[in-house]
Amino acid sequence: xxxxxxxxxxxxxxxxxxxxxxxxxxxxxxxxxxxxxxxxxxxxxxxxxxxxxxxxxxxxxxxxxxxxxxxxxxxxxxxxxxxxxxxxxxxxxxxxxxxxxxxxxxxxxxxxxxxxxxxxxxxxxxxxxxxxxxxxxxxxxxxxxxxxxxxxxxxxxxxxxxxxxxxxxxxxxxxxxxxxxxxxxxxxxxxxxxxxxxxxxxxxxxxxxxxxxxxxxxxxxxxxxxxxxxxxxxxxxxxxxxxxxxxxxxxxxxxxxxxxxxxxxxxxxxxxxxxxxxxxxxxxxxxxxxxxxxxxxxxxxxxxxxxxxxxxxxxxxxxxxxxxxxxxxxxxxxxxxxxxxxxxxxxxxxxxxxxxxxxxxxxxxxxxxxxxxxxxxxxxxxxxxxxxxxxxxxxxxxxxxxxxxxxxxxxxxxxxxxxxxxxxxxxxxxxxxxxxxxxxxxxxxxxxxxxxxxxxxxxxxxxx
Length: 464
Known about the structure:
464 residues, alpha/beta, Purple Acid Phosphatase, chain A, domain 2, 5'-nucleotidase,  domain 2, seven-stranded mixed beta sheet, 15 helices, globular, 5'-Nucleotdase_C_sf, Metallo-depent_PP-like
């Protein structure tokens, strides 16, 4: 006799709650069908459900996200980097205290040795017919950030070496919730034949019909809840083996919204507005946001970053500020709205010649108009770079670029061989936007403060 087991999952929602009522509608319809057919089914989340760009996640520090998962009837979840490194240690330690589902993350540990009660390395599910399913979770090892918050992430492959064989002995099949990214998932599939299904995420890849490496099914649903995942495993009771593995990603744009979920989100939004709408400053004059100008607001923010870090100089991109501010009271909700990015400050060491290359790149039209997606940036374009602690002489050049004529600090020309401490947004330490920054061997990240926390300080200085 064959039996089908169904898994439904989300990954990388990033607090895009506009899609949540549709997701719940889809899951509820599937639940009704599976119950009617007396088929086993489970709900899973693969991390990055929380993203503090949304006011609900910001005001409640992810607690509302966890309540949404609980109310939806999820069974197992793992954490992504947005849960792991955008909350301070205490907030993450208590994030899942009241969850009605099991959190699994085998490579997360508190540095002080005191792990939260909700954290498990693996979890076992069992169907009514006695089929045992092992679930293990892994998250991306961004230890440069985690260590500053009091956590450590063990290497994923070493973690699997530690747990996977025993889990295979104790269960009939294994599902990995992997918030590692597609490259790691493919390597894991090649190395660990014990793993039957890898639910992938983090790199926001999408597999409409699943992918197979050897005997492992890889599945993924992109980002923001535009797709939901379904995995169907067929078990033969006579041979005690899996005979078929299927994975599908379903677009939910066409679905109606679940009214109860919609009402729940409306209440959370009202609560969030109440928590965030406390006044922090009274502006005498409006403050302009312009992605391609050095505005007073950006100048104050960059100077605040330099002073706060004690760096020799600082720079930020004007695209970080999404909207202008009117004269009058400004609330934390306003600050969050105009600067929603979960981005921290980082100080890197650059030699004078490297800093000069960064400045030259900063004033190219290609960088200023670059539409960045990822690295914590929730805006549209990079925009003009604004500097503090340096005097930069510019003249217009071809193709909307600027020519850097001269760079001085306190009237002295940059020393090409001297090392300078440069404060900027941590997003420039990733990728190839500014290679000299990304390649710096000296990086000091400041956590848990976000840029918007420094923006609050900058706003208070505007009236001084």
